[in-house]
Amino acid sequence: MLKRIFSNILMAFFALNYKQGPGTKIFVKAIDHAGNTSKAGFNYNIKRKIFKKDVINISDKFLNWKMPEFDIYTPQDSELTIKNKFLKVNREIRKDSYNKLIKLVEKTDKVLYWDGVFLRLPKSANKAGFADNRVYKYKNKIIDRQIHLGIDLASIAHSPIPAANRGKVIFAGPIGIYGKTVIIDHGFGLQSMYAHLSSYNVKENQMVSKGEIIGRTGITGLAGGDHLHYSILIHNTFVNPIEWWDKAWIKNNISSKINKAESR
Ligand SMILES: [Zn+2]
User: Fold this and answer.
1) Percent of the chain with pLDDT over 90
2) 151: CA distance to ligand 1 center in Å?
3) How far away, in angstroms, is 233 Cα from ligand 1 center?
4) Is residue 15 domain-resident?
5) What are the φ/ψ torsions at residue 23 (nearest 5 degrees)?
6) Is residue 147 within a helix (H) or strand (E), and if so which, with residue range?
7) How far does residue 230's CA lie from ligand 1's centre (Å)?
8) Number of folded domains in the chain?
């Protein structure tokens, strides 16, 4: 999707998903008002990346505590065993939550709201990484596999969460496995997502500045302990948040290119 930023220059962010390695074809396709289409290639370099495996042991204690929270989504399934209830949540509710999220992030403004490096939850430890290959074990048997499309950050319970950068809140509310969630649009399809919150204090269409407190960490949704699930999306594609915390990466990959276009 190309959007006009300057009178004769168009800009778009290109995102690769975690499965797209070297060999992925990228090109620009533009359609003018008369419907004429043109397509062009450009130079790019995609590095191979191997993501981690992460084993998650599911206990009865966790299931007995957590599954009732999902009864509102599956009221007819009261006869299911606790293990099957978990599988339903981890597969079907996960899919529904993802579909809902993907609809929500269609809303984006043609404005570059953000500036500079994105903020990370202060004084927090990385508990799970982007695109971790999660293997779920129950009573020592593998029962499910899923890909983790964000980073889990843990600090003290109910830690205040700063907006990673300036933007417009496009959603604040519950989404299935993500629990209470806030999504901020930074413009041109770039968004940050904050999940499993205990509370939030922003509402849709509200502008927030970088560092402004938007809510507090929690355990809502499919979370076993208090943490922040933090994701970055570009045009419906989850990308690695680590890159957006990196000043040099932003300069080399994003801002230097925009500055170059502006100075032409
Ligand atoms: Zn997570």
Assistant:
1) 83
2) 6
3) 14
4) no
5) 105, -15
6) strand 141-148
7) 7
8) 1
Which H or E run contains 83?
A: helix 82-88
pTM value is 0.93
In a domain, 192, yes or no: yes
**Mean pLDDT along residues 221-249:** 97
CATH number, residue 56:
2.70.70.10
220 Cα–ligand 1 center, Å: 11
Distance 261 CA to ligand 1 centre (A): 36
Query: Cα–Cα distances in Å, from 210 out to 79, 184, 207?
Result: 47, 11, 10
Domain of 92? 50-262
Q: What is the pLDDT of residues 34-87, one digit of tens each?
A: 999 999 998 888 989 999 999 999 999 999 999 999 988 876 766 789 999 999
Q: Is residue 25 situated within a structural domain?
A: no
Q: What is the token pair recorded at 96?
A: 């529904």
Lowest mean pLDDT among 4-8, 49-53, 149-153: 4-8
Confidence at residue 79, expressed as pLDDT on a 0 to 100 scale: 78
Angle at 123 between CA 122 and CA 125, to 5 degrees: 110
Domain assignment of residue 58, yes or no: yes
Higher pLDDT, 9 or 53: 53
User: pLDDT per residue over 191-216, tens digit each?
Assistant: 999 999 999 999 999 999 999 999 99
Sequence-ordered list of residues with C-beta below 8 angstroms from that of 74, at least 6 positions apart, any chain = 80, 85, 88, 89, 93
> CB of 158 within 8 A of CB of 198?
yes
Residue 231 C-alpha to ligand 1 middle, in angstroms? 8
Distance in Å, CA 77 to ligand 1 centroid: 26
Token representation of residue 62: 């966790």
* 6 burial type by CB count under 10 A (0-12 exposed, 13-18 middle, 19+ buried): exposed
Taking the C-alpha atoms of residue 11 and residue 156, their distance in angstroms, rounded to an integer, is 40
